[in-house]
Amino acid sequence: MRIALLGAESTGKTQLSADLAAALRAQGRRVAVVAEVLREWCHREGRTPRPEEQLPIAQEQERRVDEAAADAEIVVADTTALMVAIYSAMLFEDGTLYRFALERQRAYHHTLVTGLDLPWVADGLQRDGPHVREPVDALVRDCLASGGIPYRTVYGQGDERLRNALAAISATPAADAQDPARPWVWHCDKCSDPECEHRLFTGLAR
Question: d(Cα 42, Cα 133) in Å, to the nearest integer?
Fold first, then answer.
């Protein structure tokens, strides 16, 4: 099983990936976490990537997921090629990565989008500022909806965020088991109001 974590910067993807892995391992599952290649790349190079470097980063992200899936029962991806594609389109007006990224996203059994209810925190070269979070959040949702890719949005602080993520995985049929003629999407895929979605999600989790 492959679980993808998507979302704007500083929405807790890295922490949630670690927490999910720990919780699933406690259930006796063999779990691998695939970290964000872009973060590693920026730390190594001391800069953000140029337009022509975006695709290799996206491809390496997915190669590592495939590699991890060969040995692990569950792979938790701390981002996917889709986030690279979205930022490439935003920063460089280059939408050529979308086809590759959406094809790859369909290989994930569960896609979780991290909500905007956590405060923005500066962290390295790849963070642009709190002003980009809402536009990125909207782009993530639009991309998933247009690609017919099912997803859940996860909100909450600390342990609540983890519980909501686990509930979303349990409540959502694996993507490859869905009727392709009727792709499931989150009820508010056009809305980025965290209060609205949080009420809906809380009601579902109960």
Answer: 20
